[in-house]
Amino acid sequence: MLKIAYSEVFRYQVPEKHRFPMQKYTMIPERLLKEGTITADNFFAPKLLSEEEILTTHTAEYWHKLKTQTLSVKEARPIGFEMTPELVTRGRYIAHATYECALFAKQFGVAMNVAGGTHHAFADHGEGFCVFNDVCIASNLLLSRGEASRILIVDLDVHQGNGNAAIMKEEPRVFVFSIHGAKNYPFRKQISDLDIELANDTGDAEYLQILGDTLPKLISDFQPDLIFYQSAVDVLATDKLGKLALTPEGCLARDEMVLTLAKDAQIPVAIVMGGGYSEDINDVVEAHCNTFRAAQRIFFNK
Ligand SMILES: [Zn+2]
Questions:
Q1: What distances in angstroms separate CA 90 from CA 83, 113, 166, 297, one per listed residue?
Q2: Would you tell me how many other CB atoms lie within 10 Å of the CB of residue 84?
């Protein structure tokens, strides 16, 4: 069964002026339900991430400022959202959801978070619409609890997961792999275990070739026992921030490649969403829905 993390709290609306299209968190589950790709039984409501769990990854100082809403204007600005207690609580549920997805992936082969992939959050600060680093928190919890021993992060968001790279820099049990736009945010990049930078306007054929040349070898060399897949759709040509040129079909082929490789290698894969900023929100929602459809098809023949 495809387990999907979803909660009312994911639907928190940020002011209209923000460029981050939060409405996708409502539209994706609605569309998948309506078309029959999933039923209400697929959803699970994640728990709240505890303070102790936050501190596996984030500094006590940063957490204290989030908890007491005392980030300075200068510290809050790079995050890009107005800081509210609701936004912090939302982030805690989403991060725990990513951890729970990993556990469900171990049980069912795959599991998905309707949100998550907040890969620009560092241990001591947030930026780029990211407050907590859900994949790093989940990885640290899995490692410390003996629930995984070698984790591969496949981050195909068009923006480099600078937070992932920095947090996992000294952690040999987590391999951070990122394919991203060379000329895109973050302009000062961190060093992942493997970074592949793409030129502006890279299209389907070249993208899929690079992924196909890299990921199978990486899986066989690193031998992960769990994969986090950041399946962001800001690689689309229609994306306002992305600068690459993938079609929706190319984006789907990318998802299918990652999921098929994981399934064939019998490595559980937990999927988080990441970004998507096409002018038409329908392009974003449709491309994200394709990831869920692919997971149902590939893992459950649905
Ligand atoms: Zn992105």
A1: 11, 13, 23, 30
A2: 12
Secondary structure class of 130 (helix, strand, coil): strand
* Phi/psi of residue 43, nearest 5 degrees: -80, 145
By residue range, what is the domain housing residue 167?
3-300
Rounded Cα gap, residues 270 and 302, in angstroms: 18
Ligand 1 center–CA 122 separation, angstroms: 15
pLDDT tens-digit series, residues 24-37 = 999 999 999 999 99
Kindly give the distance from the C-alpha atom of residue 117 to the centroid of ligand 1, in angstroms, as a whole number: 9
89 Cα: distance to centroid of ligand 1 (angstroms): 22
Angle (nearest 5°) at CA 277 between 275 and 279: 165
- The CA 212 to ligand 1 mean position distance, Å, reads 21
Distance 208 CA to ligand 1 centre (A): 18
Q: How far is the CA of 215 from the centre of ligand 1 (A)?
A: 20
CA of 172 to the centre of ligand 1 (A): 25
Give the model confidence (pLDDT) of 41-75 as tens digits: 999 999 999 999 999 999 999 999 999 999 999 99
List Cβ neighbours of 2 (8 Å cut-off, separation of 6 or more): 38, 42, 108, 110, 111, 112, 292, 295, 296, 299, 300, 302
Tally of domains within the chain: 1
279: left (phi over 0), alpha (psi -120 to 50) or beta: alpha
Predicted confidence (pLDDT) per residue in 173-186, tens digit: 999 999 999 999 99
For the segment 187-230, what is each residue's pLDDT rounded down to a tens digit?
Answer: 999 999 999 999 999 999 999 999 999 999 999 999 999 999 99
The CATH number of residue 289's host domain is: 3.40.800.20
